[in-house]
Amino acid sequence: MAQKVQFVETVLRDANQSLIATRLPFEKFAPMLETIDKAGYYAAECWGGATFDVCLRYLNEDPWERLRKIREKMPNTKLQMLLRGQNVLGYSHYPDDFVKLFVQKAVENGMDIIRIFDALNDVNNLKVAMEATVKAGAIASGTISYTTSPVHNHANYVKMVKELKEMGASTICIKDMAGIMGPQEAYDMVSAIKDAVDLPIDLHTHSTTGLAFMTYLKAVEAGVDIIDTAISPFSGGTSQPATETLAYALRQLGYQVDLNDDCLVAMADYFKGVRDEFVADGTMMPKSMATDTQCLTYQVPGGMLSNLLSQLKQMNALDRFDEALAETPKVRKDMGYPPLVTPTSQMVGVQAVRNVLDGQRYKTVSKEIKAYCRGEYGRTPAPIDPEIQKQILGDEKPIEGRYADTLQPVVEDARKKLGELAKSDEDVLSYIAFPNLAEKYFEARKAKEENVVTYSIVEA
Ligand code: CO
Questions:
Q1: How many A from CA of 454 to the centre of ligand 1?
Q2: CA of 402 to the centre of ligand 1 (A)
Q3: 373 contacts: CB under 8 Å, gap ≥ 6
Q4: 201 CA distance to ligand 1 middle (Å)
Q5: Most exposed among 95, 124, 152, 256, judged by the fewest C-beta atoms under 10 Å?
Q6: Residues 265-293: tens digit of each pLDDT
Q7: Ligand 1 centroid vs 234 CA: distance in angstroms?
């Protein structure tokens, strides 16, 4: 029997995040949800990552309501979200009571698969979210944040995969957020993990460097079970490679691909129009669509590249782009070679920009980098450069053990504080994650409801 390859569609989350800074509102993709549902995907990645933040910050949407509406229109396809371990959907560590309730509510609102990663691959930061996912009855996808450095190798990754299995992972995801994994590396790594554990393996990469099609092909030859792709108008560049192209090529090579071509054609037609709107208003920038081989040196993931660009654009310093990009791997080395993924990608990126614009390294340091040097993000792959750590921390000593163990529970206090403004536990969770944004959203919602009431009285 032919080897079967399954697909995760990323247009609603990662493609959206990588190409247009997650600005896709619900109404723009809603007409296609039923078609995606019928297309035969293993899963649709549709929530988590930056979607939650952007819903509240820019789109005036309740992220929970978005999830429920997607679920309603997609009863047959597994919904997948990306969760940043102990960071959940934010940029720093949360107490365990928040992590547990968030995972429970995500599953209650319709989530099937929670892909859980940690920016440092510190499994202590994955444990609570993994256990909560299993307890809620969803699929815990234990994730490796893939990177290369003098301290990263297959033996480390295989050890991590075994730990993830013990924590309850039912699938393993190799997350190559920067698109730097080459075909041979994919073949070797998938083979090594297949030998170590008997779990389905999903490979996630980006087209940034142009390697992705070859990388997926060799991963499939090594027996990878699932690959992540984006419907063609939202594929390529900093996004994933095209769904239709991989389906076509893999079928030609004799693999079994259970995707419905009519659905894919309908999706491509529709999303072409959506893409053109974002190109026209400047949200989708040509730089994110291009193949950028510099990433093989700089290891800058898709989302980070477009963030770096908009950061420099805001400061009127787009001409310093190449310098900031070149400073990035130096900051990464100083910080003990963290994989570059949210939030470390932002932290390292912002620091690189500061170092370049200040004309002096570590003259200004974000509170996140300071917390990182204090050990609040977990164990770094290699030690942080001791001199730079000293320069940043002064006489302060880094903490030992798991940072979340030092945090007080937050859910009860937030519930009390919000009172009637929060209508549900979901509201409380939004508030803890993004207090200012959530409060603003709740106030706007309340005002809107009061208006509606007044209006209906007038009508009557
Ligand atoms: Co990604």
A1: 45
A2: 26
A3: 384, 388, 389, 392, 393, 398
A4: 16
A5: 256
A6: 999 999 999 999 999 999 998 888 889 88
A7: 13
